[in-house]
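Renewal narrative, Specific Aim 1. Our central claim is that a sequence can be written position by position from structural information alone. The example that follows is taken directly from our test logs and has not been curated for this report. It begins with the C-alpha cells describing the chain, in the order in which they were read.
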C-alpha cells in the first residue's frame, strides 16, 4: 500500500511539473501594428526579476514591474505600422522584443513574447478588478502581450503581461505546402536542365 501511495505521489508530481513547465515558442508569432495613439496597461506580473518595458524608437520607460502597480496605464506614443516592445530584464541584463527570435543557451531560436486578444489564454485566471477596469477604458482593438523574462525560464509566457490598444497582431505568412512543392519541383527541373546541358557539352 505504501509503495502504491509513493507511486501515485510521484505521478502527481510529474503531472504538476509538466503543467508548470511549458515549451518555448519556436514559431514566429508575427508582428504588432497600430494606427493612432497607443495606450498600454500593466495587467499581470509573476516575475521576481526587475524588468522595464520600453517601446523601440521611443525614449523613456513604459513600465517597471518593481515600481508600477497593476492597472497602471501610460501613453506609448503613436503608431503608424509595426510597433515593437522590448522587455529589459535588469536583473540578468537580457532583453527580449516582440516579433524577434532569441538564441537560447542550447543554440535554439525561440520567442519571448506571445500575443492574444483573450487574456484567459495565458492561464493565470481572470484579470484583477483594477486591471479589468483599466482595460475596459481602452478604445480600439486590445492585444495582450505576455513575456517570458528569462533566457532559460519556464516558458509559460505570463511573467509580465501588458495590454495595448489600438494594437493588432499580424501573423507572419508561412508558405503553403503546395507552394513549397512547386518551389521544390522548380529546383528539381533546374537541376535536370543543368545536368542535360553539362552532358550535351561534354560530347
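The sequence written for that structure reads:
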Amino acid at each position: 500500500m505504501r509503495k502504491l501511495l509513493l507511486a501515485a505521489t510521484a505521478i502527481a508530481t510529474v503531472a504538476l511539473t509538466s503543467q508548470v513547465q511549458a515549451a518555448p515558442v519556436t514559431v514566429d508569432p508575427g508582428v504588432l501594428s497600430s494606427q493612432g495613439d497607443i495606450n498600454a496597461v500593466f495587467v499581470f506580473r509573476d516575475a521576481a526579476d526587475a524588468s522595464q518595458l520600453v517601446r523601440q524608437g521611443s525614449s523613456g520607460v513604459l513600465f517597471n514591474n518593481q515600481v508600477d502597480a497593476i492597472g497602471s496605464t501610460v501613453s506609448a506614443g503613436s503608431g503608424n505600422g509595426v510597433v515593437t516592445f522590448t522587455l529589459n530584464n535588469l536583473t540578468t541584463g537580457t532583453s527580449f522584443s516582440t516579433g524577434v527570435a532569441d538564441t537560447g543557451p542550447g543554440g535554439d531560436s525561440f520567442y519571448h513574447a506571445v500575443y492574444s486578444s483573450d487574456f484567459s489564454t495565458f492561464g493565470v485566471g481572470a484579470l484583477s478588478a483594477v486591471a479589468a477596469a483599466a482595460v475596459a477604458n481602452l478604445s480600439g482593438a486590445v492585444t495582450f502581450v505576455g513575456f517570458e523574462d528569462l533566457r532559460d525560464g519556464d516558458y509559460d509566457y505570463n511573467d509580465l503581461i501588458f495590454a495595448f490598444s489600438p494594437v493588432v497582431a499580424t501573423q507572419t505568412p508561412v508558405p503553403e505546402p503546395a507552394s513549397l512543392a512547386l518551389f521544390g519541383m522548380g529546383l528539381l527541373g533546374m537541376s535536370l536542365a543543368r545536368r542535360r546541358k553539362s552532358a550535351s557539352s561534354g560530347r
